[in-house]
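Fold this sequence, please.
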Amino acid sequence: MGPGAILGKNPSIDLLKGVLILLVMAGHAMELTHAQHLALWIGSGFRMPLMIGISGYLLNIGRLRNEPGEHFFGRYGERMLLPWLVAMIVYLLVSGWSLSWRTPIDLLLRPPFHLWYIPVLFFLILVARAVPLRPIWLLAIGVPFSLSIMYGFGPHHGAIGVSLLSPDSRYLRYPIYFFFGMLMAERGLANRYLGVALLTATLGMGWWSELEYDQNIFAFVSARLLMCLGLIALLPHFAALRLSFAPLNHIGRDSLFFYLWHPLVMGLMMATGIGAPVTLALSVPTLFALGRLSASHKQLRRWIGSTPPIRPPGDAQPLDPAPQPA
């Protein structure tokens, strides 16, 4: 069992997840106001690949493959898929989405808005469960699929084909990051390679920052891979630092709730006419408060995806660890 099996409560990883959620929210706030900034471009390059990589890093592959199917689907269904479905229904109602017999297929294979992340993550978890190979071999299988999508779609996304069953390209764009995260959990990163990973991530980010208006697909794919794989390779060393800052760590632990509901909260606030910076400044504490208020209500938590309150050490009960969407 690799170190990723015990990292669900690692404070450094929770803190990093909190930072990434704030970057996602900041990026969406700027996109809602059609703002253009270099920081938005850089953040868009690594935030979702790193979130996917963290999820692979935290995956308990031994438990995943050994637990009975009803336990597996019940656990992920209750703690990840049910909140996603509730959020999907709410966003469809708010947006006035037209419904037809094709709607369930469209929503599953080509999820709208930001809601692609949960089904894509669950698909990758299913692959890791169903294919009984070590992470290095899963990575070797996933690389050709990811590269073909990256070179085919560039920075954009869309359906792979035109048929009813054509999936969103992100189902095949992200395996490389997920399985590389699993590999880092299994093998770690030797100290002698720490400088190499830091240099790779730095060079990739510098290269990526120059490509905002560049149409060179080769440069786009290469720069993003260097940046994101370098950052994912640093996860074992970052986890070992045991960093903690309570507000960010809480957001990281409650990342599913923040991710699912931040566009709704931000959209409602922005409809009042306030700008992106004020919207972001108000949305974070609002979501924080809503998550805390729902924490003590078990049924409500199940529906909206918030986390239970943290028990004092003396009162801790042997609970089933929750799935770890970044």
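The chain has one domain: 3-311. The radius of gyration is 19 Å.
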